[in-house]
């Protein structure tokens, strides 16, 4: 193994053109960590936020973008017993995925599900960790409840639809084109084109949503509250239209509503390890059986990471975008 590796760094905060090739030293795994020889890396909106200077890496993490990847274990740090060199893994990363090698806590890695390619495996962790912790842990979605996800054809959306359906919820989704609406329906959701109709009366006509997963923010916040059923829970995971809006909170008390949310990256290593353990027990069997699978959009060479970001930010993609590293 060489002492240096090819990577993509953020030259200066800005648009996709800020992503440029570089050469970096291969990182060394510390206690409890593994080094992964990356085959494919996932591309996610937090990567774009970091590129724009709006989402700093946590202390001690690589400054390179990339929060998930799949590959093989190249080295193990002291105290690691659950993985061996050569094991095929997919993993949640603290950063550094846009490179030939990256380190991550050993407990944040999972085996590659049966039948999935490296590209598919690289598209799992960021979205599955996020959906599980927000929809099931925080919002407590149960079988038989009504679940609405906005942006149904995003990586988060396609994952949320499948997981909610697999666990017995009735699933609704919004999307911005007829092609995207059709994709949501193919995944098992009842879907609405938000450019042509308002989701609030649609959901109210169905009795309201017990849980809403939203990444839009802005004027969606008061509209989401109207679309919730009594005792409904709104989970906020991003603010594509901004985090500030005027809201009448009186219905929150009268209708016993809950607003919650989280970001994944700043959580402790222990918290992420616990999510990984739940996924391995509850979700990986569904992936192994082919009951659910990542929806894939397009794969770009690592050197074309800027093009991958441009596609993601254009909003035309359906499912996950990945980078081929090897």
UniProtKB/TrEMBL annotation:
Keywords tagged on the record: NADP, Oxidoreductase
InterPro entries, A to Z: ADH-like_C (IPR013149), ADH-like_N (IPR013154), ER (IPR020843), GroES-like_sf (IPR011032), NAD(P)-bd_dom_sf (IPR036291), Quinone_OxRdtase_PIG3 (IPR014189)
One MF term in the entry's GO annotations: oxidoreductase activity, acting on NAD(P)H
Enoyl reductase (ER) domain mapped to chain residues: 14-323
Transmembrane segments: none
Superkingdom, natural source: Bacteria
Matches recorded under Pfam families: ADH_N, ADH_zinc_N
CDD domains xrefs: p53_inducible_oxidoreductase (cd05276)
PANTHER family reported in the protein's UniProt record: OS02G0805600 PROTEIN, QUINONE OXIDOREDUCTASE PIG3-RELATED
The protein, known as: Putative NAD(P)H quinone oxidoreductase, PIG3 family
């Amino acid at each position: 193994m060489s002492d240096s590796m090819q990577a993509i760094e953020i030259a200066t905060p800005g648009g996709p053109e800020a992503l440029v090739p570089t050469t970096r030293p291969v990182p060394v795994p510390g206690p409890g960590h593994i080094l992964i020889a990356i085959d494919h890396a996932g591309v996610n909106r937090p990567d774009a936020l970091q590129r724009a200077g709006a989402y700093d890496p946590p202390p001690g993490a690589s400054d390179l973008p990339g929060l998930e990847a799949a590959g093989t274990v190249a080295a193990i740090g002291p105290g690691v017993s659950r993985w061996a060199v050569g094991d095929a893994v997919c993993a949640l990363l603290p950063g550094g995925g846009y490179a030939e090698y990256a380190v991550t806590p050993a407990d944040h890695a999972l085996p590659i599900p049966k039948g999935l390619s490296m590209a598919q495996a690289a598209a799992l962790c960021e979205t599955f960790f996020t959906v599980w912790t927000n929809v099931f842990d925080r919002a407590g979605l149960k079988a038989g409840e009504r679940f609405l996800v906005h942006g149904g054809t995003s990586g988060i959306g396609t994952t949320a639809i499948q997981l909610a359906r697999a666990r017995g919820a009735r699933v609704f989704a919004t999307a911005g084109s007829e092609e995207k609406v059709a994709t949501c329906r193919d995944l098992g959701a009842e879907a609405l084109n938000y450019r042509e109709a308002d989701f609030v009366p649609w959901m109210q006509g169905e009795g309201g949503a017990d849980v809403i997963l939203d990444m839009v923010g802005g004027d969606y916040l008061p509209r989401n509250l109207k679309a919730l059923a009594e005792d409904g829970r709104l989970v906020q995971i991003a603010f594509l239209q901004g985090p500030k809006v005027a809201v009448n909170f009186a219905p929150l008390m009268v209708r016993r509503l809950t607003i919650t949310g989280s970001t994944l990256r700043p959580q402790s290593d222990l918290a992420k390890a616990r999510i990984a353990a739940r996924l391995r027990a509850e979700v990986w069997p569904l992936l192994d059986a082919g009951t659910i699978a990542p929806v894939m959009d397009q794969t770009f060479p690592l050197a074309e990471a800027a093009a991958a970001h441009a596609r993601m930010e254009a909003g035309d993609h359906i499912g996950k975008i990945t980078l081929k590293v090897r």
